[in-house]
Amino acid sequence: MSEFLIAIGLIFFIEGLLIAIFPSRIKSMLEIIKNTPEKKLRSLGVVFLITGFIIIWYIKN
Questions:
Q1: Is the dihedral of CA 34, 37, 39, 45 positive or negative?
Q2: Phi/psi class of residue 15: alpha, beta or left (left: φ > 0; alpha: ψ in -120 to 50)?
Q3: Helices (runs of H) and strands (runs of E) counted in the chain
Q4: How far is C-alpha 10 from the geometric centre of its chain's CA atoms?
Q5: What whole-number distance in Å separates Cα of residue 46 and Cα of residue 25?
Q6: How far apart are CA 54 and CA 18, in angstroms?
Q7: Cα dist. 9→5, 28, 47 in Å?
Q8: In whole angstroms, what is the distance from residue 27 CA to residue 31 CA?
Q9: Which domain holds residue 35?
Q10: Number of domains the chain is built from
Q11: Predicted local confidence at residue 2, as pLDDT
């Protein structure tokens, strides 16, 4: 459970850091995401999900 909380904290840290350093770039990226079709976003989400799982699985084993 503590590893899960550390992972969530790391996500918040990285997201906050990016928003603090590049606020205008984040706004333009969000506009691009808003105009991207849902099917493409879903596919990209699955790719990131699988990549993240493989990285975690590799590190844990």
A1: negative
A2: alpha
A3: 3, 0
A4: 11
A5: 24
A6: 24
A7: 6, 25, 22
A8: 6
A9: 2-60
A10: 1
A11: 87
pTM over 0.85: no
Q: How far apart are CA 56 and CA 61, in angstroms?
A: 9
Report the amino acid identity of residue 14.
I
Eight-state DSSP code of residue 35? T
Q: Would you mind telling me the total number of residues written for the chain in this entry? A: 61
Place of tokens 């550390």: 6
What's the pLDDT tens digit per position in 1-59?
888 899 999 999 999 999 999 999 999 999 999 999 999 999 999 999 999 999 989 98
